[in-house]
Amino acid sequence: MRKTLTIALCAVLLSSCALAKDSAETKETKEVRGADTGFAAAARARDLEKFLSFVDDDVHFFVDGKMVTGKDKERENWTKTFADKEVSIVWKPELAEASGGLGYTSGGFEIRKAGKLQRKGRYATVWRRKPDGSWKVALDIATSEPPVEEKKK
Predict the structure, then answer these.
(1) For residues 147 and 116, is the Cβ–Cβ distance under 8 A?
(2) What's the CA gap between 143 and 120, in Å, rounded?
(3) Which has fewest Cβ within 10 Å: 31, 66, 71, 137?
(4) What are the tens digits of pLDDT across the range 77-133?
(5) How many CB atoms lie within 10 A of CB 45?
(6) What is the layout of strands, in order, in the sheet containing 66-69?
(7) What is the per-residue pLDDT across 23-47, written as a single tens digit (0 to 9) for each?
(8) How many Cα atoms occupy the beta-carbon half-sphere of 12 within 13 Å?
């Protein structure tokens, strides 16, 4: 009887540890989704400093198919875009997951100029948890869908 009770108690403790781990992962995932939503809001508002606050110092991203590294390069990349009041950028995370200090988000994006669609596609962003608990963009990748005319062929 005592052995059965001990085994049952161990099983309950192990399952509660597993549930606690799942809760922590769910919390991280919510944090990463929230970070991406805030990142998107900063882009939509053309707030360069807020936008860059989501970016890690050694961020990697692509410009014209070439990998570029660093927050200063990211600033150069987005300064002109944010200055153009006719440009709007929207994205929304559809997938988000995080565990152990790394996370990712993915979804669709659109870039418009004067209301006309310029670019539409999909993105994937890798997030890294910093020692202060914040999440920063470590890698940002986007791919465009072909223009509508090309899709019809």
Answers:
(1) no
(2) 8
(3) 66
(4) 999 999 999 999 999 999 999 999 999 999 999 999 999 999 999 999 999 999 999
(5) 12
(6) 66-69, 55-63, 135-144, 116-129, 102-113, 87-99
(7) 445 799 999 999 999 999 999 999 9
(8) 6
